[in-house]
Amino acid sequence: MDVVNQLVAQGQFTILKQPLGFIKALQWIFAIFAFSTCGSYSGMFKMSVECKNRSESDLAIEVEFEYPFRLHQVYFDAPTCKGESPERLFLVGDYSSSAEFFVTIGVFSFLYSMAALSVYCFMLEKYRENHKGPQIDFVVTAVFTFFWLVSSCAWAKGLSDVKTATDPDRVITLITACDDQENRCKEVHDPKVSGLNTSVAFGFINLILWAGNLWFVIKETGWLAAFGGTYAPSQEKQPAPDSFAQGDYAQQDPYAGSQGGYQPDYGQQSYTEGGEYSQGYEQQPTSYSNQN
């Protein structure tokens, strides 16, 4: 318990509030929904065959099928309505490849999302070191995006074929006794495939999540800045200047010229005894005296 508390204390769980971690958590959850709704499915449908001779009729023929939908291995016994032993019939089709591929992508997406979340929470600084972690994460996310697209489309087509192969009206055509108009064949119960429909929906939701996550992962790689021409490798910071005296800039008198311009020297004006008036223009003072 102490180890768990220590890990939790060292974790950086604020990443889960950011799009990078939040979307990864959604991927982890929806991957579980996708492979569980498909991999745990089992269905059943019922038919009835009423023969002309009622004693040979079978009004509750149950056919069960499940993941991985190898329907050609699913069989049932139907009356022949001819006094003979029931005939054994098999469903048509093998759709295990698309179903198993879909479930496999879901399981591996679940595992990778869980591992990525662990790295985000406990090794975020190492993840962002030299952009190597985000670059690997981007490549893997792009691969899973492509696989979700392929697997979801393949499983959607496979599910459509499974629905057709397990349609009681279609299966009835396989029964020999139903070719005789004197015998009455009908469906009693259709298979419930709502869970399988949900699995397809979760598959395309995962596709949207993984495709959307590409944008937030690529922002961590530094590639966008490099392509935009704004990326520059980190350099050693230079110390800030202590004064504004760099470049030999000096404060000068705006009126001072290098060619000896006019530079008056205004001095203090004063009156001397005898009514002499003195001006400080660096010239010989002129004095005026009263002459009789």
What's this model, at a glance?
By secondary structure, the chain is an alpha+beta fold. Helices cover 46% and strands 13% of the residues. The longest helix is centred in the middle third of the chain and has 34 residues.
End-to-end span in angstroms? 120 Å
What is the structural class? alpha+beta
Mean pLDDT: 79
Percentage of residues assigned to helices = 40-55%
Radius of gyration: 45 Å
- Helical segment tally? 8
Seen as an oligomer or otherwise, the chain set is single chain
Order of helices and strands: HHEEEEHHHHEHHEE
State the shape. Answer: rod-shaped
Order of strands side by side in the largest beta sheet? Answer: 2-1-5
- According to DSSP, the number of beta strands is 7
Q: Beta-strand percentage?
A: 5-15%
Q: Main β-sheet, in a few words?
A: 3 strands, antiparallel
Q: Unreliable runs, pLDDT <50, ≥5 residues?
A: 230-239, 243-263, 266-292
Fill in the keyword field for this structure.
7 strands; two-stranded antiparallel ribbon; 292 residues; disordered C terminus; alpha+beta; rod-shaped; single chain
Describe the structure.
By secondary structure, this protein is an alpha+beta fold. The chain has helices at residues 2-10, 19-39, 96-122, 124-127, 132-165, 168-172, 194-221, 223-227, and strands at residues 42-50, 58-66, 75-78, 87-90, 184-189, 270-272, 276-278. Strands 2-1-5 form a three-stranded antiparallel sheet. 22% of the residues are buried. Mean pLDDT is 79; it is low at 230-239, 243-263 and 266-292.
